[in-house]
Design brief:
Helix content: under 10%
Order of helices and strands: HEEEEEEE
Mean pLDDT: 85
Low-confidence stretches: none
Length: 104
Amino acid sequence: MASNEAAEDRDPRHQFGLTTQFDLPNNIEIDDTVRAVDRLSERSVSGYATADLRVSWRPRENIELSIVGQNLGQPRHKEFTPEFLSTQETEIERSIYGGIKVNF
């Protein structure tokens, strides 16, 4: 395999991403991102699809309450494997958290 072809196998052949943002009545906002990434054959990483979602509400102009879900497509997925250092492979896990933001 030529060196250029080997380098191409280090990146996904196909990637897709779509982000939308909605401002709804009653000061509610919804932001979401959906993405799909093809496998990395040289690094033994399977393809994956996942989504992030944020919903927020502003009861007052200076207060925002939000809930966020990240990597909602599956419980966890591997995005890469170390190439130069022998470090442990990590997986990105699903997470859900809330937030409160107050502007003074």
